[in-house]
């Protein structure tokens, strides 16, 4: 081919592109033999990707274009000489199959297909440096001129990649011999790994080609499957598998769970998914693949011990997991797996397509199976009825009225069998019936319930796990499954034993009007399978934290007074304390109920002793609140909670209006003494250790407080937000606290009498 019109290019060395070699040999290192050159007009550029330069894959861009036809006559040689060349500016687009221009005129009137490009090489001019790429096609040459060498190389590598991936797509879409196909796949993987281009599609495009190949050739042997998986493993080290490939991996995990590929190839892939995935909702098949991988591990000889080692490897050997996405992703996988066990039952209510049917493309109404019959089992099944009859007893609780409904059905089949899931939905509190799961679904449920147990054993994961599980994100059918609730009870017990407030506070409902774990595992709850031991444990940890408040006690009195009295009657010290606090804070207004509580307390030794102490405190309280004593009081610096308690027990303080505890060592514990002062209007807590828990208690009992100084105290938004109920506040000092701007704006809105506010050295300043 003659570029300069006189056979000049034929007499020069040039870099032979790998594109002109056979497909299987593209990754080998070789160049065309150099030809003797006669002129110094052009020099070859031996381009090597190992130089360390990296480029972004181009999809479009502006470049100068010149097209030279092969000269056939003397006149055409003159017309195509370098002195008469004409360059045209074009905005070229690199599509999947061709090179086209946004303005299809002139040289680029028709698109240039990658399949027609015979050769692709770099050129540089000596006399006037122009950075060019030469594309050879039958009958001529296309020259592309870039502004600089970097842009030229970027165009060169992008064109080279597009041409190669186009050829591989054509070859692998029409496979003939699978031994040849495997070699092509390995060459494709090597090409992607050695490319100097940096783009997500560089690794994703080969994976999509291979996933399409596998989807269209489902008759491959298991050995061919494993060979292909091993071949593409290097691409998966830093890339998520595409959805179709995930489906193929899921199938392999289900059919060959004991294959070494599961351990050696899938393990790093799943680890990467759990560490880096941000949203399973965008790619649910990644979650499904992770789920099937875990189930495959459970099928190994070690069973759940292997799964436990995998979970530990994801957490790491230290006390803190360095990957913040691991726990949310693991929980998402567990929740989806547990839901899938009941998916058929749940979707049978409205005959809506299940996730499995959607994945299989069966979304049309006429493609769906009829609703699956539901079987409900009693905890203590009676004598089996005749085969042609079905007798079901369902307890319904609606509007606090209980009714027993006895329904007899005719011969099994047809429309005579009721949809009992609807019955469960009508009465969420029904716990006498449970759905019988197939054996495989039961194994899945047990496996992922155990994983939740494992997650709860890690101290650093427990706060986030408690927060994720606080809304009770399980089907109500699962909560009626005895085995599942037993495993889940261990998790809730771990939450109840954790001293951190951010953990055990998640036992309560996420919002008012919705049940939380506290309600589910209380006596009478759907998940309670004991005599209230877990309930008492939860109450104990909550009362020991910042929940010794009127609001919490009032909720217990309204909803759980019966269980509390029963456990107190059995000598449970926590419940005895609860009943005493209800009497002390005047939570119970009904006199008969008060007398019943007193009788309950006096029936046990521990209750009798604590009730006597309550009576003593009440007498002291009456003495303390008796009119008289000082109106102003200042404690010496370094005073403690015990000093304050001792002082207030020494006389009457019914007239005390101004109390200064500034620069003392009092903490939130002194709030129990402060709430006994009925006339207190001004409280100075400057530079003390008074915190959020004490602030919440004050907000419930000292409604008349007008002036409050919290300067340099460790209070945060969690406690400051409770001040919104103290409508009498007119002066509030929050200088040097952890107050935020949002909380400050909220307080200004809810405290109409607030006139004097100090928020210096806070975020709200």
Summarize the entry for a quick read.
Keywords: Cytoplasm, Leucine-rich repeat, Nucleus, Repeat. By secondary structure, this protein is an alpha/beta fold.
Structural description of this entry:
With 765 residues, the chain is α/β, with parallel strands linked by helices. Among the domains are: 60-159, Pleckstrin-homology domain (PH domain)/Phosphotyrosine-binding domain (PTB) (PH-domain like); 175-314; 549-627, no CATH class; 628-758, Alpha-Beta Horseshoe (Leucine-rich repeat, LRR (right-handed beta-alpha superhelix)), CATH 3.80.10.10. The chain is built from 29 helices and 18 strands. The strands form four sheets. An eight-stranded antiparallel sheet has the order 1-6-7-8-2-3-4-5, with helices on one face. The chain is elongated, with a radius of gyration of 38 Å. The two termini are 77 Å apart. Residues 1-50 and 361-433 have low confidence and may be disordered.
Figure out the total of helices.
29
Which stretches of 5+ consecutive residues score pLDDT under 50?
1-50, 361-433
User: What separation lies between the terminal Cα atoms?
Assistant: 77 Å
Q: What percentage of residues falls in helices of 4 or more residues?
A: 40-55%
Oligomer: single chain
User: Strand content of the residues, in percent?
Assistant: 5-15%
Sketch the major β-sheet: 8 strands, antiparallel
Kindly report the spatial arrangement of strands forming the biggest sheet. Answer: 1-6-7-8-2-3-4-5
Shape: elongated
């Amino acid at each position: 081919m003659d570029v300069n019109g006189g056979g000049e290019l034929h007499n020069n060395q040039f870099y032979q592109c790998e594109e002109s070699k056979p497909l299987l040999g593209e990754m080998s290192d070789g160049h065309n033999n150099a030809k003797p050159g006669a002129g110094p007009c052009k020099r070859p550029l031996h381009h090597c990707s190992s130089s360390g330069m990296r480029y972004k894959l181009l999809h479009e861009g502006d470049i100068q274009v010149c097209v030279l036809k092969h000269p056939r006559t003397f006149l055409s040689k003159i017309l195509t000489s370098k002195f008469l060349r004409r360059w045209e500016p074009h905005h070229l687009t690199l599509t999947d199959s061709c090179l086209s221009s946004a303005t299809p005129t002139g040289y680029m009137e028709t698109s240039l297909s990658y399949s027609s490009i015979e050769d692709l090489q770099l050129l540089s001019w000596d006399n006037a440096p122009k950075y060019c790429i030469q594309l050879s096609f039958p009958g001529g040459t296309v020259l592309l001129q870039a502004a600089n060498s970097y842009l030229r190389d970027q165009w060169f590598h992008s064109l080279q990649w597009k041409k190669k991936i186009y050829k591989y797509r054509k070859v692998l879409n029409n496979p003939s011999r699978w031994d040849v196909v495997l070699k092509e796949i390995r060459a494709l993987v090597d090409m992607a790994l050695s490319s100097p281009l940096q783009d997500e599609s560089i690794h994703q495009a080969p994976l999509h080609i291979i996933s399409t190949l596998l989807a269209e050739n489902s008759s491959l042997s298991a050995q061919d499957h494993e060979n292909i998986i091993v071949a593409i493993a290097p691409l998966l080290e830093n890339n998520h598998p595409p959805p179709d490939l995930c489906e193929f991996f899921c199938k392999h995990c289900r059919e060959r769970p004991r294959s070494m590929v599961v351990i050696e190839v899938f393990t790093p892939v799943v680890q990467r998914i759990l560490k880096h995935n941000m949203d399973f909702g965008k790619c649910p098949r990644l979650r499904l693949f992770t789920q099937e991988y875990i189930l495959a591990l459970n099928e190994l000889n070690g069973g759940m011990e292997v799964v436990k080692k995998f979970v530990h490897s994801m957490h790491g050997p230290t006390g803190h997991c360095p990957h913040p996405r691991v726990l949310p992703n693991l929980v998402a996988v567990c929740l989806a797996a547990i839901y899938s066990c009941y998916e058929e039952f749940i979707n049978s209510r409205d005959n809506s397509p299940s996730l499995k049917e959607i994945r299989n493309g069966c979304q049309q109404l006429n493609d769906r199976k009829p609703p699956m019959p539901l079987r409900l089992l009693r905890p203590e099944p009676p004598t089996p009825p005749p085969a042609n009859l079905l007798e079901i007893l369902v307890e319904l609780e609606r509007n606090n009225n209980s009714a027993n409904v006895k329904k007899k059905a005719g011969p099994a089949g047809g429309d005579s069998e009721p949809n009992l899931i609807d019955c469960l939905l009508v009465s969420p509190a029904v716990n006498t019936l449970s759905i019988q799961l197939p054996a495989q679904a039961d194994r899945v449920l047990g496996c992922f319930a155990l994983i939740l147990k494992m997650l709860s054993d890690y101290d650093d994961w427990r706060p986030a796990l408690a927060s994720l599980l606080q809304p009770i994100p399980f089907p109500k059918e699962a909560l009626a499954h005895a085995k599942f609730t037993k495993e889940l009870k261990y998790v809730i017990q771990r939450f109840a034993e954790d001293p951190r407030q951010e953990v055990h506070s998640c036992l309560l409902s996420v919002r008012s009007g919705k049940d939380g774990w506290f309600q589910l595992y209380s006596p009478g709850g759907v998940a309670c399978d004991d005599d209230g031991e877990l309930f008492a444990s939860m109450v104990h940890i909550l009362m020991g934290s910042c929940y010794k408040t009127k609001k919490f006690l009032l909720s217990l009195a309204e909803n759980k007074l019966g269980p509390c009295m029963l456990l107190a009657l059995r000598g449970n010290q926590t419940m005895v304390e609860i009943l005493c606090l209800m009497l002390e804070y005047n939570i119970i207004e009904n006199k008969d109920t008060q007398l019943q509580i007193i009788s309950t307390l006096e029936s046990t030794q521990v209750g009798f002793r604590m009730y006597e102490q309550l009576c003593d405190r009440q007498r002291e309280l009456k003495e303390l609140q008796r009119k008289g004593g000082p109106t102003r009081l200042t404690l010496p610096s370094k005073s403690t909670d015990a000093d304050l308690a001792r002082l207030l027990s020494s006389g009457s303080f019914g007239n005390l209006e101004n109390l200064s505890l500034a620069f003392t060592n009092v903490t939130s514990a002194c709030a129990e003494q402060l709430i006994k002062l009925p006339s207190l209007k001004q409280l100075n807590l400057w530079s003390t250790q008074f915190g959020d828990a004490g602030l919440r208690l004050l907000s419930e009992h000292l409604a008349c407080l007008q002036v409050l100084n919290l300067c340099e105290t460790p209070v945060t938004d969690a406690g400051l937000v409770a001040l919104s109920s103290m409508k009498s506040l007119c002066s509030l000092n929050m200088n040097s606290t952890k107050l935020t701007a949002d909380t400050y704006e909220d307080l200004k809105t809810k405290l109409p009498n607030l006139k004097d506010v100090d928020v210096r050295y806070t975020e709200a300043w």
